[in-house]
Specification:
Blueprint lengths: L4 H21 L20 E6 L5 E6 L14 E6 L4 E4 L19 E2 L5 E6 L14 E6 L4 E4 L14 E7 L4 E6 L6
Antiparallel strand pairs: 1-2, 2-3, 3-4, 5-6, 6-7, 7-8, 9-10
């Protein structure tokens, strides 16, 4: 079989691409990030994670109550682990520091490429004022300002009457663009 110039270039590109990936893989290590600030073994499971583009920050959900001090709500929470400082921060708290009163386990938390923003869905009704719809909403937490915002609202700020989920996202340096599923919401 005679290879065309295009086929030869394509083959060369794929070979270089795969060999570069294999070379990078040799430098990878597996690291456990669901340890708490005290480096104690978590007392429950952790799951659903995402990582910032530079690999420094990992957002994840966990039922563990010993990852941060004073986690007493008895339900799953969203956390960010900083691989540089070996610290864990709880994310699903209100602007006044009140712990979540509802589950945040339905979709993986999504962290922006620079680790500043974390998006997640939650059944909690106490993360922001006037959350009275009694259904799952989508929130974004700004780790720099420690402000949480509900983003599953219509253009007029009206909350939906049905569940909201994170479907897809686009991560940019200081921007987190979310595509929400509000198929059944009637705003």
């Amino acid at each position: 079989m005679k290879m065309t110039k295009f086929t030869t270039l394509l083959f060369l590109f794929i070979s270089l691409f795969l060999s570069s990936k294999l070379a990078l893989a040799e430098n990878f290590t597996i690291e456990r990030v669901s340890l708490g600030n005290t480096q104690l073994e978590p007392n429950a499971s952790s799951q659903t994670s995402s990582i910032s583009s530079d690999g420094r920050y990992v957002a994840f959900s966990s039922y563990a109550e010993n990852l941060v001090s004073n986690d007493t709500n008895g339900i799953d929470d969203v956390f960010v682990y900083d691989r540089t400082t070996d610290t864990v921060e709880i994310i699903n708290v209100s602007n006044t520091g009140e712990q979540s009163n509802g589950s945040s386990l339905y979709t993986e938390p999504i962290i922006s490429s620079n680790g500043r923003y974390v998006a997640f869905s939650s059944d909690a009704s106490n993360l922001v004022p006037n959350d009275t719809n009694g259904v799952r909403d989508v929130f974004v937490y700004d780790r720099n300002t420690h402000i949480i915002e509900r983003v599953s609202l219509n253009n007029s700020g009206v909350e939906g009457n049905n569940q909201s989920y994170l479907l897809q996202y686009l991560l940019m340096e200081d921007l987190l663009v979310l595509l929400l599923c509000d198929k059944f919401n009637r705003f």
